[in-house]
Design a protein that fits this description.
Layout lengths: L6 H22 L8 E3 L2 E5 L2 E7 L4 E7 L5 E2 L5 E7 L2 E9 L7 E2 L4 E8 L9 E5 L10 E5 L5
Parallel strand pairs: 1-11
Antiparallel strand pairs: 2-3, 3-4, 4-9, 5-8, 6-7, 6-10, 7-9, 10-11
Length: 151
């Protein structure tokens, strides 16, 4: 059995295939599933840790649901606060209320806490909260952006 394809049909199919390949890159967008980002309050999931954040003047209210198969360690190093003041960007250590060194959120459990700047100062207008649920995967983190934190 042979299929006859005319030159005209071959050109149409080739053009359609090229368009589909070129257009597929537009569907992926610029998001990275290992670094989910959102503007303002809300929920993000990274490494099966579903995290909801709400910003107040001097701290973030954080709720973390552990959807992983293992326990989820939460400590001061799990969070980073990035503040932009003019052209300068500052990284601040975080204070995590209720976090105990060596303690972890069991699978399926929810942990509620607050996160603030270690120096005790207000968060400011242009601030980003970053959450890294696992030290072994430092390149995977979620970011909540408030105001302008990039140039």
């Amino acid at each position: 059995m042979s299929l006859k394809v005319s030159r005209r049909n071959f050109m149409k199919l080739s053009a359609a295939a090229a368009l589909a390949v070129a257009g597929s890159s537009l569907l992926t967008g610029c998001s990275d599933p290992n670094k989910p980002t959102r503007n303002g309050d809300g929920t993000l999931t990274v490494l099966s840790a579903q995290t909801t954040v709400k910003k107040n003047v001097d701290k973030f209210e954080v709720e973390i649901k552990n959807g992983r198969t293992n326990d989820l360690k939460i400590d001061q190093d799990s969070f980073r606060i990035v503040v932009r003041e003019g052209d300068k960007v500052f990284n601040y250590e975080a204070v995590v209320e209720k976090a105990i060194d060596g303690w972890a959120v069991p699978k399926g459990q929810t942990f509620r806490t607050t996160v603030a700047r270690k120096d005790g100062k207000p968060l400011g207008t242009n601030v980003t909260l970053q959450f890294r649920p696992d030290d072994a995967y430092d390149e995977m983190f979620a970011s909540w952006i408030y105001g302008k934190t990039e140039k």
